[in-house]
Amino acid sequence: MCCSANSETPARCPESLIIRPATAADRPHLRQAIVELQNYERTLHTTRLPGEEVADLYLDWTLDRAETQGAVLVAESNCIFVGFVAGWIEETDNIGETPDSNRVGYISDICVMPDFRGRRIATQLLSRIEQHLGRTGVTRLRINSLVANQSARASYERAGFFPCETVYEKTIVAQD
Questions:
Q1: For the chain, how many structural domains are there in total?
Q2: Per the CB 3.0–4.6 Å rule, which of 7, 18, 41, 45 could disulfide with 79?
Q3: Per-residue pLDDT at 15
């Protein structure tokens, strides 16, 4: 493979999108994508902290979770970091749900960098993480989205996801 996270020779690389497992060399790009994602979500909901505040800890947490039963996949085009997806197996013990609903592939994050959006790269990343997690025997994938994140929701629905539960929130005003 000619591409690497720090390649200086894009002319030697193929024009097609490459999706591969993340390596330690991808850390600066993954961190940048987390900052981008977090800051974008901050514009949609007041609960999100600034990306720079959480990027390092969140990236460490994500890489740790994905290491044992999942993956972090990186997308590159012409040796340029385009985005990433992260996911792993989540297991619960909800007595009200079926066994296949208690062990699911969970997609924690997906980010396509701004200059590459609108090219269906998210769909390709989702397909690859689905293949990866599907090899573990799970039959369900789950992904969360802010209701206000219409572009993410559209990408997920294009990839075959459908809304199955809604979380409602209400801010309580302290009373004296």
A1: 1
A2: 7
A3: 57
